[in-house]
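We emphasize that the prediction below concerns an isolated chain of 406 residues; any contacts that depend on oligomerization or on bound cofactors are therefore not represented. The input was used exactly as deposited, without trimming of termini.
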Amino acid sequence: MTKSRKVEFEGATGATLAARLELPSNEPVAWAVFAHCFTCSKDVFAAARISRALAEFDIAVLRFDFTGLGGSEGDFANTNFSSNVADLLRAVDHLRREHQAPQLLIGHSLGGAAVLAAAPDVPEAVAVATIGAPSDPAHVSHLFECAIDQIERDGEAPVVLAGRTFRIQKQFLEDIEEQRLRERVRGLGKALMVFHSPVDEIVDIDHARRIYAAAEHPKSFVTLADADHLLTRPEDSRYVASVLAAWAARYIETVDDSREDALEPGVVRVGETGAGKFQVRIENGRHVLVGDEPLKVGGDDTGPSPYEYLLASLGSCTVMTLRMYATHKGLPVSRIACELRHGRMHAKDCEECETKTGRIDRIERRLVIEGELDEAQRARMLEIADRCPVHRTLEGEIVVATQLAP
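Result of the prediction step, given as a token string:
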């Protein structure tokens, strides 16, 4: 089971900031900081659920309340985007001092903009992830545009956001207008993952396009299908966490050969994550994958199902085998792909099967081979596909020896 610990540290203005550290049951393989959305708190659904789910993947996460929000001290009216970035850097300092500097920075909505702005000043961070983030901090002003005239005239005005009243000062507007976030993104120097929903009604997905366009590689983009801005559905948060953990493993050195539970080469470990009913973490060396079941059978669809991984194994082996053969023979093959489908059929309907009773598994494999090949060469490629090692394993006699660990 993961552990959750209350934490406090001093913010940029001297106020005491409330935080929570989500710790995995094992020794953390990485550390992260999570910045919440505008006027939210560390306990908003997205922050809490994603942080806890990442802890299940052995990533320790510090989530905190910005000055004047949640359990943190200070006056929100005196804060702005720059002070949020400064608070974020104080959170980084806290981890650096008490545990280990974060390798991963995560931000939701305006918190995503904050991690983009802060990231160049965190040399230990190698990866940054944003969720529904604006490409320009000034975007948040549309949430209280009806009060902007009063703010400009009187220096401040009360605004109602998500059912709560906040005082917004003129200095806040001036600060967000001065930000040049995309310049920071261009100089990020770290791997970037952008999560965004195409139906986000708070921050249009065009903001994600601008962030992605400004960043240099390595960068990735994940569409959150029909998720809302706050990721209020648990399955959306679990999906973000599982994808984020698998992606981050590519950039974060999560494998320590000195660990007692380090895997030998060629060994695969699969274990429950605790996120959802069926989700599993799949480890192989420095590679981390996620498995799950589809929604229709009670899963959360955060990763391929066991049979889909089986198809992926056969498909990968098929394509690699065909590429090796084409290269060896000097065939003009520009691209190889295959599509696979698993199902079951009555044995009596299978003419080529020895079994004639009950039901049998059937895998349909459709090859796509692009290139100037004659019919004989294409027929030979079809024969070679059936010789890939995984294909032979599936058709051969298989012994699975199972025992209980001590």
